[in-house]
User: Fold these one by one.
Assistant:
Number 1:
Amino acid sequence: MTTPDADTSLNQPQQPVLVPLRYTPVEPQECLARARRAYEQLEQRRSVRHFSDRPVPREVIEYLIRTATTAPSGAHKQPWTFVAVSDPALKTEIRQAAEAEERKNYEQRLTPEWLDALQPLGVDWHKPFLEIAPWLVVVFKQTVELLGSGERRKNYYVSESVGIAVGLFLAAMHQAGLVALTYTPSPMKFLSEILKRPPNDKPVMIIPVGYPAGDCRVPDLQRKRLEEVAVFLEG
Ligand SMILES: Cc1cc2nc3c(=O)[nH]c(=O)nc-3n(C[C@H](O)[C@H](O)[C@H](O)COP(=O)(O)O)c2cc1C
């Protein structure tokens, strides 16, 4: 008779399946040219709060979400859901709920220091872009995974992973010739209710996506210089 321990295959961790990397070599000069081009393109991205109502085809949004989900994620848990809303009734509901919270923020909850930090952006509790932009992409994070068995399994580095995914979404959106805003109403629990998300999907932000209004203006902001944000320790 064999004891369970005698069958060693039962106790061996599964071997990971490794496949060749898809990689196209790039010469150093071309590498530099591409790095510069990527910077010059993405440096032009701005947060936009004045949208046109010009439609954007669903297929475009599908590719942006596909790009977002190429992001690395802690233990490859892919702890995200992207809910893309173009339904006018849902957008109105989201706007009304967001403005109700924002109004309380601006009139009661924000500290003078916070209001001071927002001053250069010229923002207030009115959020018309939530109805005007053709798409609202609402990002959710999953701090736990719900297995079919009903078991809950913890995800790792969830905020970092979702942040990277949103970064890739924004880069792809910009490359596609669109504009967007990373909008974080607070609190934003209303998004789970309106969009009927399961309890392990926690809302992170709303990304209105579309074309800029003809008279779109943006705050005159400066970005920190490389010397202020980077430290090189070279050998
Ligand atoms: C995590 C996060 C949350 C933000 N939340 C808001 C927001 O709630 N409302 C808003 O108008 N802008 C919001 N922004 C946009 C910032 O104000 C904006 O990125 C910043 O002013 C720099 O401008 P730029 O994106 O044009 O470079 C947010 C940005 C990030 C990254």
Note: Residues 1-6 have pLDDT under 50 and may be disordered.
Number 2:
Amino acid sequence: MSLQALDLHIHLAGAGGPGPRRDEKAASDEPPAEASVLSKPSQAQAAQADVQEAAAGCWFHPRRLRAPGFRVMLWSLGISRREARTRLGAALRARLVQALEGAPSLSAGVVLALDWARDEAGEPRPDLTDFYVPNDYVLALAGAHEKVRAGVSVHPLRADAAEELHRCARAGAVLVKWLPTAQNFAPDDPRAAPFLAELARLGMPLLCHTGSEGATRNLNKAWNDPRRLRAALDAGVTVIAAHAGMRSFFHEPDHMDAWVGLCADYPHLYGDTASLFGLRARHLIRALDRPYVVDRLVHGSDWPVPASPWWFLGRVPVRRIRALARVESPLERDLRTKRALGLPEAVFTRGHALLYSAQRPSRASS
Ligand SMILES: [Zn+2]
């Protein structure tokens, strides 16, 4: 199988109110957002029905609609606040499908679920959760669209964690996503050990957030430190540190050097290039000067976080930036901007290699 460019860090969300709200119902009179050339014709109708049903399980805390960062994101996507309030899930999904269709450089994108913030007993805490994206939603999307792969999310402290992991693996999930500071657990909590052992056994990579987090509340910023991933790495799990420990804002600690240090110890540790926003965009330039680090980078956009080539003024010629800014698909624009920065092609194809076992690097022996 030839290696193809893959974006392994894409988010979706669906609306929710004070009590899970079914924003898909409000949108059901309209043509399905995902009726597109990406659909597999033979199963299209059943697959679209599955997507609609699974999307109805999403939850979105109304407080996020008021957050400045979220408003910027809506503006960049051309989604009005009214549309966000009434049909956020369908609107975001339509933009995503459009962005994937308009990205000829990408073979596929991994769309990420997000499990609930949970309490010590592993029970959901909607009051602590900013957004919840069910695994069944991304699995249904992957069944409906040629260019979508499912990245599922399983909180390691839930009672059925191993069972859910195996269910998702059987359904075709390609990786597990954690966002510990939003999901209320330490990545190195000893109680997560059985789950990590199962992940290692399945050979399924873990994409775990590191560095500053701005899209959700931080329940504990200490959990954004990549050194917390030693537990997963020691268990033999292939780990992709989302954002490679980079920060977005000056007042946040920068964990990139910690991630670089870990790379020396663990050959099965990677970091993704998400996202080209704020300081993080400039930090990516730092990585380019270290070939050893570039060998561990994996392409990810963090869509729908807005990506702009203008962050690289002074590094990329203005004429080229202008041309990049005109690329309509934000996913294609993000990828081409990173190519313009000089990231080697291996960064874009490495995700494909990690997710498909024949290409998967051997685990470090402990
Ligand atoms: Zn992200």
Note: The two ends are 30 Å apart (CA to CA).
